[in-house]
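ZP: hey, is the MU-OXO-diiron complex queued? I don't see it on the tracker
AM: it wasn't, my bad. submitting now with these inputs:
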Amino acid sequence: MLKKTVLAALNEQVNAELHSAYVYLGMSAWCEGKNLPGFAGWMRKQFEEEQAHALKIYDYVLDQGGEVVLKPIAGVPAAYKSLQDVWERTLKHERQVTALIHKLYALAQKEQDFATQALMQWYVTEQVEEEKNASDILQQVKMVGTNSSSIFFIDRHVGKSRE
Ligand code: FEO
């Protein structure tokens, strides 16, 4: 059985992951509008992945006999200054998610909740990948700058990386 504090934090994390999904969907829409189908596709895939992250915790709460509480999901920006802005925000966002995961893991340790620690271990590892992906693509976007033929190329490359 989950302790109250852990249950509340898990429900918060479900909300945070759904918010992440929303963040990526908003970015995908912006990329579509800028004729960047590769980046839009990447973001849309990430939208699906974030929903899977949310559902993994959702299922765990139910398996543990806990109550799932779905709170409102915060809105996301409709516009960005540039492609670089999108990826800077992506990296910043993933770092914030990592901090939430670490906080939840630390709470599970404090409460001696071994099952939740085991679950959160998966997220700790996943966040290393999430930050690496965002950081790698941000570096590539910075490298090409505003050169449109390079942006065209990188858009195709990023899109293909998640087909
Ligand atoms: Fe679910 Fe991108 O972290």
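AM: back. DSSP finds five helices and no strands in the chain.
ZP: great, adding it to the tracker
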